[in-house]
## 1
Amino acid sequence: MSCEFCHNQGCNGMCRNNQKTPSMMQMAKNFAGSMKDAAKDGFKGSGEDLTKERLEICAGCEFFIPDQQRCSKCGCAMAFKTRLKSASCPIGKW
């Protein structure tokens, strides 16, 4: 079976591990923006079902870095970001 991302035989999506994250400065800005939104929302959690749904979407995304469990667009740690009710995907997938 070929990879849906790079189309190579046997890759299994691990090609996405080669992606770069944004600069540390940009990731800090992204994190600060997420925390500002979360604070406005009272740091509400997304709940287990929504968190799981979001993580499944991320796992199937071309911008997800499996080894790091991060998004290559925003640089966020998705296990954390998906738990914030106010958070959103940087490319609008959730």
Note: The two ends are 28 Å apart (CA to CA).
## 2
Amino acid sequence: MHKRMGANRRRIHGEKKRALGKAVKKAVTRGASFSTVAVIAVCVIGGAVFAAVKIVSWVNSSPLFVVSNIRVEGAVRVDTMDAVRLSGITPGMRMTAVRPAVCEKGIEKNAWVRRAHVERHLPNTVTIRLEEREPIVLVNSGRIRYMDKDGVLLPLFGGTYSRLPVVSGLAPDAVGRCTAGSVERVQRFLDDCGDEPVARRISQIDFSKETMVRIRLEDFPAIVELSESQTRTGMRRLGQLVESARQEPAGTPKRINLCYENLAYVQW
């Protein structure tokens, strides 16, 4: 004979059954939702991959995506046609065949190019941006060449006209650059000259002596000797001496030594 269940027990038992049913239903629903999301995700990814393959195939075959416009920006001393030639980019080649890193390395073979940057602009334009080297002096190392702040010796152009001073007494290294120490010495001297008006008239600088610099001015034939440790003071004194020497009846001096702290040695 079955044991009869009280009202409270029947209520509790019913609540447990209903809770179990809800849990099962929720689990089934969650499983269905995950399966649905997974199927949708697979379809989307598959569709994207298929579309990407189609787009790449179209870009590689369409006559729309061929190089027809090559722009060169930042060229002052560098010939634009030479920059294009070194890049390897030619009109009519496919845009996908343009490899910016390879093109940049080719362009930088030009000594005047400090850095090159190549960009592709769909559908048919390539832009070459150049950062050129800036010369600070002319260097006489057997032949006259420009030198930039990195010590790179740069070729002259036909019909070159320059107001930069010609520097001698610097020895280039094995790779055709001036040594770091030489570059630092030149740069320090130019900085120490400052904004003195007479400094803008320097035409020649000789660094063959270790602690002394010999200079010549454009319109003043005397050889001027300066101590590198007192360049600023020496340039100020030189400006005063040049003005006073113009008024001397004996004419222009042949040599001026400003290496002494409180003495200017002038030889006529």
Note: DSSP finds five helices and twelve strands in the chain.
## 3
Amino acid sequence: MVVASYHIVLADDHVMFRQGLKRILAERSDLEVIGEVGCGLELLKLLEKLVPDLIILDISMPNLRGLEAIHDIKMNHPKVRILVLTMHKDKEYLRLAITGGAEGYLLKEDADSELFSAIDMVRRGKKYISPELSEGLAKDWIKVTRGDQKPSFEPERLTVREREVLKLIAEGKSSKEIGDVLFISARTVEHHRANIMDKLNLKKTADLVKYAIQKGYV
């Protein structure tokens, strides 16, 4: 019996890493890479032309991060499954990815041994989290239930669009440049900037940049 190909799109700004990942995926006859991109905005444009079964994407990409792209993908293509493949072990990234709609979170250091397991679990409609992170989450949950520590995740105060704007502000882009990247007006960008400063109780652009760096947005 011929097994239908499972169509995959790769989104990572490192070309050599994408090439290596394609070679690994080619070991499985039921997996087919049908597209690849280097940034979040390129990914959204690609999805206007083709819709894969699975997107494997990194968090740290230029213009539009993987975390923000997840939200847009799930809004427009809710059936597309997402496996985050990243070097980031920070639990905040994990929380934002999973709550944003990703079905899996795989550390790049685990990819050699866990990639196919992660894909197969996500393909079956299950959640996947790298062993190191899932073990840490289990330990945290036990401590929280015992009352030994408070929950480690703080609620995200900014919307997805506000995080996109903040990232680009921290990268030094003007309101017009940000508007061009996100396809919104410069006036709308200024509105988002004001909302961000109000929510975070910040007064200067330098404070926004510092906050963005602390949160890992850049």
Note: The longest strand covers residues 31-37.
